[in-house]
Design a protein that fits this description.
The protein has helices at 5-31, 45-60, 64-70, 75-107, 126-152, 162-188, 203-234, 243-250, 254-288, 290-304, 311-328, 331-356. The N and C termini lie far apart (57 Å). By secondary structure, it is mainly α. It has 12 helices and no strands. Helix content is 76%, strand content 0%. The longest helix is centred in the C-terminal third of the chain and has 35 residues, at 254-288. α7 packs antiparallel against α11 and α7 (203-234) crosses α12.
Length: 357
C-alpha cells in the first residue's frame, strides 16, 4: 500500500527529528569527550553495589554453618529454596530427555511439533517495519524530552522516584509499540488478530507447548549462559548491571516493586512477542523465508536488550521463540515460553534478595 503525500511528509519529518536529536546526543561526546580515570577496571556505582552483594552471597554460602545461620527464622524461605532447587533439577533432567528425543526425531526426519494451525499470509511487509521503527524512536525521544522539560520546569525533582519514572516511560513505550502494530494490522491492512498468531482456538494446547518447549531448551540455555560467563571471566569483562536488577534489590516501595514485576513478567513478554514474532517475523518471512527471518528477528530481539554479555543467550532464546511460533502457528506458545523465562529470572532475583536481607 503506497503512502500518500501527507504520510510521506509526516514520516520524513519524524526521521529528521530522530536524526537531529541523535546528533545532539552524540556530537558533544566527540567534541569534548570526558576523560576516564586511569584505572584498570572502571565500575559504576551500581556495579560496585552488585559486587558487594555477590561478595556477601559468597560469604553466606561459604560454609555449612553460615548457611544454617542464614535460615534461622527464615524457615519458609528455606522451604521455598529447597522446592525451587528440586523442581529445577527435575526440569533439567526432563529437559535433557526431551532434547535428546527432539534431536533424534529431527535426524530421522520426523517432527515433534505438529502445527495447530497454518500461519496466515500477512499483508504488511518490510517497509512497515521501518515505519514502526520511526514511530517508536519518535515516541522514545518525545517521552525523554518531556521528562527533561518537566525537570527544568521543576515539576520533577531529583528526589522524584526514578523507578516510578522508569515504570511510566516503559509502560508508555510498550503501549505505543502495541498501538502501532494494531494500527497497521487491524486498521490499515484490515486483518484480524489471527494474522498475528492470536486466534481464538487452541490456546490451551499452545500454552502446553510453550511450557514443554521451555523445559526442553532449559539445559542448553543454561549451558550457553555458563559458557558466556566463563569467557567473560577469562577476559576480565564485568557486564553492566541490568536496571531491573537494581530495582529489585534496592526498591522498598511495594507498589513500585509490584509494577516492575508486572512489567517484566507479563507486559514485556506479551508485547515483545506481538511485535517481534507476530509482526516483524511475519513481514521478514514473506520476503526472505523462514530460516533467515528467524535469524534476523532473533538478532534484532537480542540487540534491543543492549547487552554484549547477554547477546548470545537472548539470541538463542529468540531463535527458539520464532521457531516455536513457526511450527505451532500460535503466538501464545511463544508468549508462554517468554513469560516463564522472565518469571523464573524475576523469582530468582527476589529469592536472592530475600536471602541476603
Amino acid at each position: 500500500m503506497k503512502l500518500s503525500t501527507t504520510e510521506r511528509n509526516i514520516y520524513a519529518l519524524m526521521l529528521v527529528f530522530i536524526v537531529l536529536v541523535s546528533a545532539a546526543l552524540i556530537i558533544p561526546n566527540f567534541i569534548s569527550p570526558q576523560r576516564q580515570p586511569l584505572k584498570e577496571t572502571i565500575r559504576t556505582e551500581e556495579q560496585l553495589e552488585m559486587l558487594q552483594i555477590e561478595e556477601r552471597l559468597d560469604e553466606t554460602f561459604s560454609s555449612r554453618e553460615s548457611i544454617q545461620n542464614l535460615y534461622e527464622g527464615k524457615e519458609f524461605l528455606a522451604a521455598i529454596l529447597a522446592i525451587a532447587l528440586l523442581l529445577g533439577g527435575l526440569a533439567l533432567f526432563v529437559g535433557f530427555i526431551l532434547g535428546v528425543i527432539f534431536i533424534i526425531s529431527k535426524l530421522r526426519g520426523k517432527e515433534m511439533l505438529k502445527p495447530l494451525r497454518d500461519l496466515e499470509s500477512v499483508r504488511w511487509g518490510v517497509p512497515d517495519i521501518f515505519k514502526i521503527a520511526i514511530l517508536f524512536l519518535t515516541a522514545f525521544y518525545l517521552i525523554n524530552i518531556l521528562e527533561l522539560i518537566c525537570r527544568q520546569a521543576g515539576i520533577l525533582t531529583e528526589t522524584s522516584s526514578r523507578n516510578l519514572l522508569m515504570i511510566f516511560n516503559t509502560s508508555f513505550l510498550d503501549i505505543a509499540a502495541f498501538c502501532f502494530v494494531v494500527y497497521f494490522v487491524i486498521i490499515k491492512y484490515r486483518q484480524g488478530w489471527a494474522a498475528l498468531g492470536l486466534p481464538i482456538k487452541n490456546w490451551l494446547k499452545g500454552v502446553f507447548l510453550g511450557i514443554t518447549g521451555y523445559v526442553t531448551i532449559l539445559p542448553l540455555f543454561l549451558l550457553i549462559v555458563f559458557l558466556v560467563t566463563r569467557v567473560s571471566n577469562y577476559f576480565g569483562y564485568q557486564p553492566p548491571v541490568h536496571p531491573l536488577v537494581n530495582i529489585f534489590f534496592k526498591e522498598g516501595n511495594p507498589f513500585i516493586l509490584g509494577g516492575v514485576i508486572i512489567l517484566a513478567v507479563l507486559v514485556a513478554p506479551v508485547i515483545e512477542e506481538i511485535v517481534f514474532r507476530g509482526f516483524i517475523y511475519s513481514a521478514l518471512k514473506k520476503r526472505t523465508g523462514a530460516a533467515l527471518a528467524i535469524i534476523v528477528t532473533s538478532a534484532l530481539f537480542s540487540l534491543l536488550h543492549m547487552s554484549i554479555f547477554s547477546f548470545l543467550p537472548i539470541f538463542f532464546l529468540g531463535i527458539v521463540l520464532a521457531y516455536l511460533y513457526e511450527k505451532t502457528g500460535l503466538l501464545i506458545s511463544s508468549i508462554t515460553l517468554h513469560v516463564i523465562h522472565n518469571s523464573l529470572l524475576v523469582s530468582m532475583v527476589l529469592l536472592v534478595r530475600g536471602i541476603i536481607t
